[in-house]
Specification:
By secondary structure, the chain is α/β, with parallel strands linked by helices. It has one domain: P-loop containing nucleotide triphosphate hydrolases (Rossmann fold, 3-Layer(aba) Sandwich), CATH 3.40.50.300. The chain is built from 13 helices and ten strands. A hairpin with a 2-residue loop joins strand 8 and strand 9. The chain is globular, with a radius of gyration of 19 Å. The termini are far apart.
Length: 322
C-alpha cells in the first residue's frame, strides 16, 4: 500500500517492511550469506542489527564500508529517515532495554506466555526497532532487509510489530565446526584498536548451539510460510540452488549468476553495521568447505561437542563420526 504525505506530496510505502532474518547461533556462515544477498538490489545487507546500538553507536564501530557508523553517509541517511537524526535516539537506552530480553533468557522461552512477559519488559524497544527498519527501507530503496543477528529472541521482538514482516532463515552448521570456529582468535576488524573477538570453550559453544537452535524451532517452525531451514554445508556445495530457494522463500527472483561464478562469490562493498570481520571482504571469495576442524580439532573437544549436541546432530543429518 502506498500513501502520499500531505505536506511534501512524497509517496510513502506503508506496507509491512520485509526482513529476511538469518537465525540460529553464531559462526554458521551467516555473514558470508548476507554479503552475497547484499549484492542484489532487492536486499539491503544490514549485518547483525541487534548489536547496532552497542557496538555501532556507543563504541563507534565501523560500517563494512570502512567508515565509522556515525560517519557513513548511508547510515546517516537511515537515522535521519528513521529518527530525524542519530542524536534523536538514545543508544544506551536501547541497549538497556534489550538486556531485559537477551540470550540469558533463552532457556526460559519454552512457553508462549513466558515469551510474552519477557517481551513486555522491553518497553518501547520494539517500536523503535520498527522505526529503524522502516527507515532503512525508505532511505535505501531496497525492499528486503537482511538481518544476520541470529538471536532467536531478537527475531521474536521484531515479529511482535505489525509493521514488520519477518522471514526466518534458520541457518545451521555442524556443531563441531561451530565450536572450532569459536576457539580461533580473530582480530575484531569493526574497531581500529586491534582488539580480538570473543572466544568460547567447546562446552559453552555447544550449550549455545543447543539452546539457540531449539529456541529457533520453538518460535518459528510452526510458521511454515515464514520459516526455512538451511545447512551451511549445503549452501557451500550448491550455492546457486540455495540462492534460488531463498528467493522462493521471500517471493523474489534471484539470478545466482549475478553474485556466484564457478565456485566464487563476487562481492562488492555493503553497509553491514556489525558482524564477523569477513563483512569487510571484497572481490572474488572462494566458496569451499571449511573442513579444517576435521583435522585440527582435538579429539577430546570433538567428543565433548558431539555428546552435548547429539540430538541436533542427528536431527540436522550430520554424521556422528566425521
Amino acid at each position: 500500500m502506498v500513501e502520499r504525505k500531505s505536506r511534501t506530496n512524497e509517496l510513502v510505502d506503508s506496507s509491512p517492511v520485509r526482513i529476511l532474518y538469518i537465525g540460529g547461533t553464531g559462526r554458521t556462515g551467516s555473514t558470508l550469506l548476507a554479503n552475497i544477498l547484499g549484492q542484489y538490489d532487492t536486499f539491503f545487507s544490514g549485518g547483525e542489527l541487534a548489536f547496532l546500538w552497542r557496538f555501532g553507536l556507543m563504541d563507534n564501530g565501523r560500517c563494512a564500508c570502512g567508515l565509522e557508523l556515525r560517519q557513513c553517509p548511508t547510515w546517516v541517511a537511515i537515522f535521519d529517515q528513521a529518527f530525524g537524526g542519530v542524536n534523536n535516539v538514545d543508544a544506551s537506552e536501547m541497549v538497556r532495554l534489550r538486556k531485559r530480553f537477551n540470550s540469558h533468557h533463552l532457556p526460559l522461552m519454552v512457553t508462549k506466555g513466558i515469551r510474552k512477559r519477557l517481551l513486555d519488559r522491553t518497553g518501547d524497544l520494539p517500536l523503535r526497532l520498527a522505526q529503524l527498519y522502516s527507515g532503512i527501507r525508505s532511505s535505501t530503496g531496497r525492499p528486503i532487509i537482511v538481518d544476520s543477528s541470529k538471536e532467536p529472541h531478537y527475531s521474536y521482538i521484531l515479529r511482535s510489530q505489525p509493521s514488520l514482516e519477518v522471514y526466518f532463515l534458520h541457518l545451521v552448521r555442524d556443531p563441531r565446526a561451530v565450536a572450532y570456529s569459536w576457539r580461533r582468535r580473530k582480530v575484531e576488524a569493526g574497531f581500529n584498536d586491534g582488539r580480538f573477538m570473543a572466544t568460547r570453550r567447546p562446552s559453552v559453544s555447544s550449550t549455545y548451539f543447543d539452546v539457540s537452535n531449539i529456541a529457533s524451532e520453538l518460535i518459528w517452525a510452526r510458521h511454515t510460510q515464514r520459516y526455512m531451514r538451511m545447512r551451511y554445508e549445503d549452501f557451500i556445495s550448491a550455492p546457486a540452488e540455495m540462492l534460488r530457494r531463498i528467493g522462493e522463500f521471500v517471493e523474489v527472483d534471484i539470478d545466482p549468476s549475478q553474485a556466484i561464478d564457478d565456485g566464487f562469490a563476487n562481492l562488492s562493498g555493503t553497509h553491514s553495521a556489525w558482524g564477523n570481520p569477513n563483512r569487510f571482504l571484497h572481490g572474488q571469495i572462494g566458496l569451499a568447505p571449511e573442513d579444517e576442524w576435521k583435522f585440527r580439532m582435538p579429539q577430546s573437544q570433538r567428543a565433548v561437542v558431539t555428546a552435548m549436541t547429539l540430538p541436533l546432530i542427528l536431527q540436522y543429518a550430520y554424521p556422528v563420526r566425521s
